[in-house]
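I wish you would study the pair of lines that follows with an eye to the fold:

===
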Amino acid sequence: MKKHATVLFLILTVLVVFFSGCVGKQNNTREIVTQDQKVSDELANKSLLMIIAPENFRDEELFVTKNVLESRGAKVMVASLRKGIAKGMLGSTIMVNYTIYEINVSDFDAVVFVGGAGATIYFENERALEIARSAYGEGKVVGAICLGPVILARAGILEGKHATVWKGARDELEKAGVIYTGRDVEVDGKIVTASDPKAAEEFALAIIKLLTEKGGR
């Protein structure tokens, strides 16, 4: 009898532990889903502007970043120097319905400059530089990837700040008084910079983090 009682006790103990674990896993799953939903709910009220070159923007820097942001509930508008089909360096295309001269920075929570060889078209474009300055001045999240950070440097908003850029443009940042870090993604205040296409997803997640932090716009 004692032997049977002991075996029964062990069986009951195992069952209790098993079901407790299942309940715990269910609770953890609910918590994760709730957290993800919270992020999506917060980003559902966020609008972002992505600025690309009409030709030779870097495909991944637009589409990977845009997809991550939209998958979390953000609304993303794409603008360029002109309307119509914009073509990436790798052959991807996107229809652009707005020019940089039509947009109002105040309508957005973040402004992001996409890199690629074509981004050089904005290095001396006064409207693009004005957009960067206005977004920074209004406390928006400002992002730039690959050659994009050069635009921010030319706009004068990176001086004295930590930032990264495509390694071939390091001198552009340093001569503008920027503290070049060489990291894949760098965050200084509400400015997010990234080095190249491989950093696109991390870049997008850094933007999301700033937009969902307490006090973030």
Remarks:
- The chain is about 45% helix and 20% strand.
